[in-house]
Amino acid sequence: MKEQLKNTELIEVLVNKARTGDKDALTKLYGVFREKIYRYVFFKCGNHADAEDITNEVFLRMIQSVANFQWKGIGFSSWLFRIASNLVIDYYRNKSRRNTESIKERDYIGETNWEQISEFLDNRDLFQAIYKNTDDLTELQKEVVNLRFIGDLSLKETAEAMSKNVNSVKAIQHVAIKKLKEKVKENQKRNILKN
């Protein structure tokens, strides 16, 4: 708990310095959040190159807008993930206008892509299991799982990023995890029966 409070205070100091144009503070904020934003975006779009582009755009927008950021009931990480979420939405809007294949049809998250991003993912098997079993989840449940476990946000940060209250996020997360566990167990049984 002390560690989390210390990190929160450090982020606040860095953000306040970044708001005045401090390049070192901007660099440190990039270092703190880059991996989390990348994982979140990659899990949403499933393509390494696009995830890199979107992640870079998130930080470009952070640099352009941080001077206007205000501590009004939303944490900096929630603000940053909201930017990422909006850019992912824009990515899919633009992609659908170009009439391209969906992520499920292309299945970008194949074995080679998992190997490419292994440096960013601590537990590839867990992320692969989540990705393969999210079809039964609602969009809201997918977003909560993505922010909480891929983006590594706290319940409070997730609630802020989604403009929901913490209890709603807890409830959505609970149902999503229950569905994921059931799906994983079902798949394990199927695999046992095949062998």
Q: Which superfamily, in CATH terms, is the homologous superfamily? A: RNA polymerase sigma factor, region 2, helix turn helix motif
What is the end-to-end distance? Answer: 46 Å
How many beta-strand segments?
0
Q: Helical amount among residues, as a percent range?
A: over 70%
The fraction of residues in strands falls at: under 5%
Helices and strands, in order, run as: HHHHHHHHHH
Number of separate domains: 1
- Would you tell me which CATH topology applies? Rna Polymerase Sigma Factor, Chain: A
Summed up, the helix count is 10
Note the main sheet: none
Secondary-structure-derived class = mainly alpha
CATH class: Mainly Alpha
Shape: globular
Q: Could you tell me the mean pLDDT? A: 80
Unreliable segments (pLDDT under 50, ≥5 consecutive)?
Answer: 100-122
CATH architecture descriptor text: Orthogonal Bundle
- C-alpha Rg, in Å? 18 Å
Please outline the helices and strands.
Blueprint: H1 2-19, H2 23-45, H3 48-65, H4 76-97, H5 103-106, H6 111-116, H7 124-132, H8 139-150, H9 155-162, H10 166-194
Helix pairs in contact: 1-2, 2-3, 2-4, 3-4, 4-9, 8-10, 9-10
Describe this structure in words.
Helix content is 76%, strand content 0%. With 195 residues, it is mostly helical. The chain has one domain (2-194): RNA polymerase sigma factor, region 2, helix turn helix motif (Rna Polymerase Sigma Factor, Chain: A, Orthogonal Bundle). Helix 2 packs antiparallel against helix 3 (48-65). The longest helix has 29 residues, at 166-194. Mean pLDDT is 80; it is low at 100-122.
